[in-house]
Amino acid sequence: MGYWNDPERTAERFKPAPGREYGLGDSELAVWSGDLVVADDDGFLYFVSRQDEMIKTSGYRVSPTEIEEVVYETGLVGGAVALGIDDPRVGQRIVLVVSPANGDVLTPELLLTRLKRELPLYMVPKEVVVRTALPRSPNDKFDRNLLRQELVGAS
């Protein structure tokens, strides 16, 4: 039915189903999750990113998931989180926080060299931070909010 005791967030996410504004359908509500997906020719949907995680840099909208997938393909990292950090020149600069694969030694320069060959220039992180491990939330996802707070606090 919505978010417990939070009518404002409920109104953001629970809206009339499409078509109702044209007099079609009934009073059914749809959940606007904020997930961005693409459909293939067969109608299958593929998750791209969360709308609220999109990085807006130099006039481009960049999915952190796209960057992270390329980072994982290098085989150099065990964990990766791409974040947009506010920057007055470009809107947001891309910062990549990674942990090495299998306890190997990983330098930002090595990873950036590989990413410059694989990613368009506007998607290449401006900074790579290497950590032994990345923080996780209680549901075992990378804690993007904590990482963002730590990076902004370190600036």
Strand and helix map with partners:
Elements: H1 7-13, E1 14-16, E2 29-31, E3 35-39, E4 45-50, E5 55-57, E6 60-62, H2 64-73, E7 77-87, E8 91-100, H3 108-118, E9 127-130, H4 144-154
Parallel strand pairs: 8-9
Antiparallel strand pairs: 1-2, 3-4, 5-6, 7-8
Can you put this structure into words, describing what you see?
- The chain is an alpha+beta fold and 155 residues long.
- The protein folds into two domains: 7-49, no CATH class; 53-154, 2-Layer Sandwich (GMP Synthetase, Chain A, domain 3), CATH 3.30.300.
- It has helices at 7-13, 64-73, 108-118, 144-154; strands at residues 14-16, 29-31, 35-39, 45-50, 55-57, 60-62, 77-87, 91-100, 127-130.
- A three-stranded mixed beta sheet has the order 7-8-9, sandwiched between helices. The chain has a two-stranded antiparallel ribbon with strand order 1-2.
- It is globular, with a radius of gyration of 19 Å.
- The chain starts with 6 loop residues before the first helix and ends with a helix.
Descriptive key words:
globular, alpha+beta, 2 domains, single chain, GMP Synthetase, Chain A, domain 3, 155 residues, two-stranded antiparallel ribbon
Structural class assignment: alpha+beta
CATH-defined architecture of the largest domain = 2-Layer Sandwich
Strands side by side in the biggest sheet: 7-8-9
- Give the full name of the CATH homologous superfamily of the largest domain: ANL, C-terminal domain
Count of distinct strands? 9
Radius of gyration, in Å, reads 19 Å
Cα(first) to Cα(last) distance is: 41 Å
Runs in which pLDDT lies below 50 for 5 or more consecutive residues are: none
